[in-house]
Amino acid sequence: MSGLKVAVVGGGSSYTPELVEGFIKRQAELPLAELRLIDVETGREKVEIIAALTKRQLAKAGLDVKVSVHFDRKPALEGVDYVVSQFRVGQLDARALDERIPLKYGVLGQETTGAGGFFKALRTIPVILGICRDLEEVAPNAYLINFTNPSGILAETIVRHTKTKAMGLCNNPINMHLGAARILGADPGKVNMKFLGLNHLLWAKVFMEGQDVTPRILEAMSVPSGQAGTPANVAALPYDRDFLMTLGYYPCAYQRYFYMTPEMLQVEIEAAATKGTRAEVVKKTEAELFELYKDPNLDIKPPQLAKRGGAHYSDAAVSLISAIHNDKKEIHAVNVRNGCAMPDLPADAAVEISAVISREGASPLTMGPLPPQIRGILQQVKAYEELTVAAGVTGDRNLAIQALVANPLIPSIRIATELFDEMAAAHRQYLPQFFRA
Amino acid sequence: MSGLKVAVVGGGSSYTPELVEGFIKRQAELPLAELRLIDVETGREKVEIIAALTKRQLAKAGLDVKVSVHFDRKPALEGVDYVVSQFRVGQLDARALDERIPLKYGVLGQETTGAGGFFKALRTIPVILGICRDLEEVAPNAYLINFTNPSGILAETIVRHTKTKAMGLCNNPINMHLGAARILGADPGKVNMKFLGLNHLLWAKVFMEGQDVTPRILEAMSVPSGQAGTPANVAALPYDRDFLMTLGYYPCAYQRYFYMTPEMLQVEIEAAATKGTRAEVVKKTEAELFELYKDPNLDIKPPQLAKRGGAHYSDAAVSLISAIHNDKKEIHAVNVRNGCAMPDLPADAAVEISAVISREGASPLTMGPLPPQIRGILQQVKAYEELTVAAGVTGDRNLAIQALVANPLIPSIRIATELFDEMAAAHRQYLPQFFRA
Amino acid sequence: MSGLKVAVVGGGSSYTPELVEGFIKRQAELPLAELRLIDVETGREKVEIIAALTKRQLAKAGLDVKVSVHFDRKPALEGVDYVVSQFRVGQLDARALDERIPLKYGVLGQETTGAGGFFKALRTIPVILGICRDLEEVAPNAYLINFTNPSGILAETIVRHTKTKAMGLCNNPINMHLGAARILGADPGKVNMKFLGLNHLLWAKVFMEGQDVTPRILEAMSVPSGQAGTPANVAALPYDRDFLMTLGYYPCAYQRYFYMTPEMLQVEIEAAATKGTRAEVVKKTEAELFELYKDPNLDIKPPQLAKRGGAHYSDAAVSLISAIHNDKKEIHAVNVRNGCAMPDLPADAAVEISAVISREGASPLTMGPLPPQIRGILQQVKAYEELTVAAGVTGDRNLAIQALVANPLIPSIRIATELFDEMAAAHRQYLPQFFRA
Amino acid sequence: MSGLKVAVVGGGSSYTPELVEGFIKRQAELPLAELRLIDVETGREKVEIIAALTKRQLAKAGLDVKVSVHFDRKPALEGVDYVVSQFRVGQLDARALDERIPLKYGVLGQETTGAGGFFKALRTIPVILGICRDLEEVAPNAYLINFTNPSGILAETIVRHTKTKAMGLCNNPINMHLGAARILGADPGKVNMKFLGLNHLLWAKVFMEGQDVTPRILEAMSVPSGQAGTPANVAALPYDRDFLMTLGYYPCAYQRYFYMTPEMLQVEIEAAATKGTRAEVVKKTEAELFELYKDPNLDIKPPQLAKRGGAHYSDAAVSLISAIHNDKKEIHAVNVRNGCAMPDLPADAAVEISAVISREGASPLTMGPLPPQIRGILQQVKAYEELTVAAGVTGDRNLAIQALVANPLIPSIRIATELFDEMAAAHRQYLPQFFRA
Fold first, then answer.
1. Among B204, D196, D204, D216, which is least packed, fewest CB within 10 Å?
2. What global pTM score does this model have?
3. Which residues of A have a CB under 8 Å from any CB of D?
4. Residue C220 near residue C210, CB atoms below 8 Å
C-alpha cells in the first residue's frame, strides 16, 4: 500500500503541531506520505508558520512526508485518505462575541453548550457541508475526522445531510478516561469505559476487573480535588455528593452548565469582567504559541500547547485514524449515527458513543434504554440539536428561535428572539444562509 | 340493570355541586342510585354542607338518589361502580405554601407544573395509592375517574403501581376545544381535536371539515384577545406569532410556564405581593361559595362556581362516566397508559391523549413520532414525572432532588436541594413516606 | 354542499348492485349526485348491463343521480369525491390460472393468501398505481376506498408509493362481527370488536358489556356448526379446541390456509377435480347473475348475489364513505398505514386495524405488542407482502422469488422459482412490468 | 491472581479432549488450576475415560491442573470461575428418536431446527435451569459458556428465566468465518465478519479492507464446491445463485432447512433408510472415539474428532473464556440478550450476534433494522423459540403445540398435535415438567 494522504482543514490551527506529533509517534503503523494544510486566505500567515514548523518536526523525526499549504479547498482534497477538520469560522474574534453577547441577557455564552455554541454551529454548518460536498466529488472514500466544535451538532449535520464517511471526535472521552484512571489509581489500560450520550453531554459507566466502579468516580467528584476529566476551559466546580451518587452515571465536564447554571454563569460573568472571556484569554495564549512556533529552532510540539482546553484532541484523532487504517477493532468514543444503540434517541440522530472501529467504519455498542435522570436531558438537548441543524441548513430565523427555545439554558421565547437578532447581526458575514441577497 | 353507585373522594370539594348537576343533566342515560361523599374528618363541616346541597339539588330534579357522607374510606368504596376523586391533601393552606415558598428561590410555585405541583404530587401519591389499594379489595371492577391534580403524575402513579382501572381527567381539553371553536366561529361539534402530550403539557391539532385548521388557532393566539382555552388561574399572556406558527401545535394554557418563564414568574410575584397567591384568592372564593351553599333555599349549582379555574371539570367527569357506562365509543382526552400511541414516550408511562372510550376502557389513538420542538420538552417533563413518582412512592429524598433537577423550571442542583428541604419541612405532616418514625 | 361524485373502478363488477343498494339505503345521509362506472373495453358488455340496472335501481328509489359509463379512466376521475375500486385484472380467467397452476406444485392457489394471491397482486399493482397517479392529478382530495384483492398488499402499495388518501376494505371484519354476535346470541351493536393484523390474516378480540368474551367465540369455533365469520369461498373446517383457546385471538376465515395447510390443499384439489376451482364456479354464478341483471324488470339487488364470497363488501364500503363524509368518528376496520399502532410491524407498513373514521381520515387504535403466537406469523407475512410490493412495482423477477420464498405456504426456493416462471408466462399480458419490450 | 477453576457439565462428552487442547494451547494466557468434569451416573464409564485422557493430555503439556470427576452437580460447581456446558439429555438414543419419529409425519427431524430440536429443547430446559439455579447459589460470579444445543433456545431460557451470566456459543460463526476466508483466498484475520440473527438461523456480512465483500461469498455458494462454512452434519446442497445474490446476506449452513425443505427432508429420509440417521452414525463415530480415548498411550486430541459436526466448538469456547478473562475486547459471535441491537426482535430475547467481549461481559454491536427477506423468517423463528421456552419451562402441552405450529417446518395443527403426542410419550422420562405425578 502506498503512503497515506491526509488533509487538515484549518491547518493553521495552533493544535496542528500536536497532530503532527501524533503522526510521528505512530509512524510505524501509519505510513504518512502527504500532509495538506488547508486554510482560508485570512489565515495565511498562521498556516505558513505551522507548515514550516511541521516540516521541521517531520525532518527531526526523519520522516519523508510532503507538506503543502492550500487556500483552494476542493483541489486540495482530491484523492485524500483522511481529512482532519479543526477550523474555526470567524476565528477567536467571533468566539469572543459568542461568549460576551449572551451575558447581557443573563444567559451562558459557552462556546459549545449555550447560545455561543448555537451561533458557532450556525457559522460552521455551511462550511462543513461544503467540505462534505467536495469530498463526495473528489475523495468519496475518504474518512472525515471532525473535531471542530460543536462536534455533536456538526456530526448531526453530516449524518442527516451528506453521504460522507465521518466520525466526530472530542477530547472529553479521553479526559474522562484518564480522570477515572487517576481516581482509581489504575493504569488507564485496566479501566474500561462505556460512553454514551451526546457531545458535551456525555456520560460514562466505568468498569475495572469486570466490576462497575462508577460509584467510586462519583464519590470522588464531590470533593474539589476529585474533578475527573475537566479540561482547562471549564470551571471545575465540585458536585453535591448525594446528587451524583443517585445520578449513577459519570458526567463529562460540560454537564455543569445544565446542573449548576447560575454558578457557571457567575464564573463567566466574573471572568469576562476581569481576565476576559475564554476566547480573549485563548487569543493571548495563541499569540504566544505562534511566537514560539516561528522560532526556526523549534522542531517539536512545545509543552505550552497543553494549556489549551483541547489537550489530547489531536492525539485522539491520529489514534482513531490508526484504528481505522489498521482495522484494529478497538473501541473509541465517536460521534456517529445512533441507529438503535440508544433507543431513547432517534435512529437517524448523531450520538457520542463507544463504538468498535474497523476499516469499514464505526459499529456503536448497544446501550439500551436509559434511566429517566439521564434520558430526559439527553432527549431535550437532542431535540435542540436537531432544530439547530434544521436552522443552520435552511437559514430559517423561525427555526433558529425554536432551537434556542428548546435549549435548556434559554429561559423564554422573548430572550431567544432578542438574543438571536443581536447575535445574528453581529455574525452576519458568517451566516450567508440567513442573509441572502 | 340496577342503579349506579358512585363515590366521590373529596366529596366536600366546592366543585361537587357541578358534579351533581352533571348527573342531573344526564339522568336519562345514567341511572344514579347512590352518591357517597367521602372526606377527611377535618373537612366534616364542608362535606356536610355539600351533602345537604346535593340532596336539595337532587330533590329539585326529582331524582331518588341515596346521598351519604363517609369518613372511613374503604367501607365507603365497597361495591361502587365509579369513583370520582377530587380531593386536596392539606387543603388550600398547603397550596398556599406550594405557591409562596418557591418564589423565595426565584422559581415558579405553580400548583401543577412547578415546584408547587411537585410537592402537591408528593402529598397526594400516598393517598391515591391508598384509594387504589382499597378499590382492588372492595370494588375491583370500579373505574376511578381522577381529577385531583397533578392529574398526569397521579395517572403515572396509578398506571405504574396499581391494577386499578383508572382514567385521569383535566379540564384543559374541553377548554381548548371550546376556545378553538370560538376562534373558528364554529359549533364545537364541528371541530375535531386530536390531543396528545402530558397533563398540563398538552398539545392539539384541530380539524374542521377534514382540513387541519390548527394554524388559524395559532394565528389568533398571538393577539391578547385570542387566548384560546386559558382557564381563570393562568395568566393569559399572548404568544409571539412567528414562534407559535412555527411550533405548529396548539398548546394548552400551561405551556406558558415553560415558554415565558420569567414573565410568568413576574406575574406570580406581583400577585403574591398584592392580591395574594392563587390559593389565597381561591380561599376567599371558596369561603364565599360555602356561604352560598349553606343557604337552605339554594337547590342548584350557583353561577359563581364558574369563576374557579376548574370550570367544566366535573361536567367532563360525568360525560366520561356516561361514555364508559353507555359504551358510547366517543373520543375523550384522558390520562392513561401510553402503550405505543406516542412512541417518543415510554410505553409504560401515562400520557394525556385522545382515546376511544367504551365499556372495556380507553383505547388511545395512534399519534406516531413527534417533531423535535414538541418532542424534546415532552420527553424531559415525562422524565421529571417518572422521577417524581419514584420519589413519591419511596420517600427517597435523593430521588426527589433528581426529580426537581429534571424539571425544566428548576435551574440548579443547589436550588433543588434547598427548596426541597424547606418545602419538605413545611409539609412534613403530609409526607409520611419521607418522615418515617 | 352540493351532491357527491362517486366513481367505481371496475364498475362492471357483479357486486355493483349491492353498492348501489348501499347508497340507496343511506340516501338521507349521503347526497349522491353522480355515479361514474369505469371499466375496461373488454368489459363493455357487462358494465352496460350494470349501468342499466343501476339506473333502474335508482329510479325505483326515486333518486336523481347521474349514472355514466367510462372507458377512459383519468377524465372519469376528475373532481370525484370518492372512488370505489373493485376491479379484477384479467377477469375470472386469470383467477382460474391462479388457482389451478399452483396445485401442480403441491401448493395452494388461493386467490389472496397463496401463490394465486401473489400473482393477482403482481397484475393489480400497476393498475392501482395508475389510479393513484390519476387521482393525484385530477382529484387530489378524493378518498380511494379499495376492495380489490389482495386488499392488504394493495394498501401496502398505496401507502408506500403514493400520496392518495386511501382506505383498503374487506368483508372479513363485518363477517367476523356478525359471526361473533350470532355465537354470543347478541345484537351486533352490543358486541365490540378490536381488529388487528393484516388483510386475510386478521385477528379480533371481542368484548361485551366491558368483558373480554373472545374465549366464548373460540370455544364455539371448535365444533363444525360454530364457524364464525367464514365466507362462502373458504372451507369452514373446524379448529382444534385446545389450539384455539390457547391462541387467545379470534382468527378470520383465511388463517386456515396457514394452520391447516394440507387439509385446505386437499379441499382445493378435490374441488378442482370435481366442481372446478372457485373461479370456475364463480364464473357460472356470475353468468347467471348477469342473466338476471339484464332483466329490464329487475330494479333491486337480486338476493342471489349474497352467494358470492364478497357479501357485505359493498355495504361496508358505503358505510365507510358515510362515516368519512359525515365525520361520524365511528370505528371501522380498514387497511391503512400502521404508524405505531402495532409496534411489532413496521411503521410504514399497511395493516388491517380498527380505526376511528372522521372527515380527516382514519386514526388507528393503539394495539401494542402482540403475543408470540400471533406476532411471528404476522411479521413473516408482512415481510412477504413488502417483498411482493417491491417486486410488483419494479418487475424484478429476483425480488418476486424472494417474496414467494418468504410466503409461509411456499416450501422451497426451487418451487418458488419454477412456479414463478410458469405463472409469469401464463399471465404475461397482465405483467408489463416484468416483460418490458 | 490464583488459578482458574473450570467446570464442564457433560464432562464425558467426546468433545472434551478438544476443550482440553484449547486450554493447553492457551496456557500462557489462561492459568487453569482445576478442571471439574461433571456428568450423570449413567455416563460414568465415559467420563472416567475422558478424565484419564485429560490427565494424560495435561501431563504431556507439563501442566499442573487438578482434574476431578463429579456426579453431584451443585457441590461440583461451588466457587468455579467458568462453566462449560456440553451435555446431552438422553444421549444419542434420544437424538435418534428426535430424528426418526418426525420422518413418519413427513417433517424434518433435525436436532436443532426441526421437531427434533424442539424436543431436545424440552428435555434440556429443566436441566439448564437447574444448573443456573445452582450457580446462583454457589458461584454467582461464574460465567456459563453453553454450547449444548439448541444453543439459541437455551440462551433464550437463561436470559428470560435466570440471573446467570451466560453466553451461548456455536461453531457456526467460526465455520462461516473460515469458509468465507477460504472463498476469498485470504487470511481469516483479514476478513471481518458481522454476525446477526439467531442460533442456526445466523447471517453475516463480510468485509475485507473496508469493503463489503459478501456478494463474493454468495456467488461462490451457488456452485457445489463453494459451500462456505457447512459442518459435517448438514448436507451441503448448493444455492440458486440469483436467490442468494438477491438475499444479500451470507446464511449459515442451517438455513437450508428452511429454504430447501423438501430436498433436505429427502436427504434425511434416504440417510435414515441407508446409513442411519445422524445420531446413529455419530453413535458409531463416538464408540470408535472412545475406543481410541481408552488407549493409555494417547495423550493428545486424536485427529479423528474433527469428523464430528461440532468441530471448532470447544476451541471457540476456550477462546471466548480467554477474551473474558483477559478483558480482550475482542469481537465474538455469542448468544445473549438482544437489547436493542436488532430492533426487529424483542429486546428481552436472546440473539446470536457479534459482540465485544470484555471482563464485564458481552456488548452486542448495533445492527439496526433488517430487510424483509431476512427479517420475516427471523421474527417467525424467534416467536417459535419464545413459545418453546414457555412450553419447556411450564410443561404446558398446549403451549408446546402452539410452538410447533409456529415453527415454519410444521405444516399444520394436526401434524403438530400428533407429532407432539408421539414424541412426548417416547421421551417421557426426560420430560418431568410435562408428566408430573
1. D216
2. 0.96
3. 141, 190, 192, 194, 207, 209-212, 327, 329-331, 339-343, 347, 354, 356, 358-361, 363-369
4. no
